[in-house]
Design goal:
Blueprint: H1 3-15, E1 20-27, H2 31-41, H3 46-54, H4 60-79, E2 88-97, E3 101-106, E4 112-117, E5 120-128, H5 129-133
Antiparallel strand pairs: 1-5, 2-5, 3-4
């Protein structure tokens, strides 16, 4: 690795020092349903988001709550300190499509209807609030 590339990599590493992420893959629900929950907590402080997700009626909220707890734990492990209220916020949350299961359902007169069972991937990034201001 050249000097310029190493210095650039070190700058990127320093910029990402305060943020941590978690991924949840192949969740068996449609991305559209998951995006409703993701939009609800995007940019919110993490403990407020945990409360929103815990008391939400959406089934996808349980998966996102589990993912958020994992991201907080990753941040605590990376920085060696406990997360305090008002310290972290959800920087990004992305919902992407995952492979689709395609099934056939019998239909009248010898035909068949295609059933698409969708799934999704969710990536959540947590960052400190003071780096948001800078």
């Amino acid at each position: 690795m050249g000097k310029r590339k190493r210095e650039s990599a070190n700058l990127i590493k320093e910029a990402r020092k305060n943020e941590s992420f978690a991924k949840l893959r192949n969740i068996p629900s449609s991305p559209r349903k998951m995006r409703l929950v993701a939009d609800m907590v995007r940019g919110v402080e993490v403990f407020k988001a945990l409360g929103l997700l815990h008391f939400s009626n959406k089934a996808a909220a349980a998966d996102v709550e589990k993912l958020l707890k994992s991201a907080i734990s990753n941040w605590e492990q990376k920085n060696g300190q406990k997360a305090e209220s008002g310290q972290l916020y959800i920087k990004t949350i992305m919902v992407d499509c995952a492979p689709m299961l395609k099934r056939l359902r019998p239909a009248p007169q010898g035909r068949a209807y295609r059933i698409r069972k969708r799934s999704n991937h969710v990536t959540l990034t947590v960052d400190t609030i003071n780096s948001k201001d800078a």
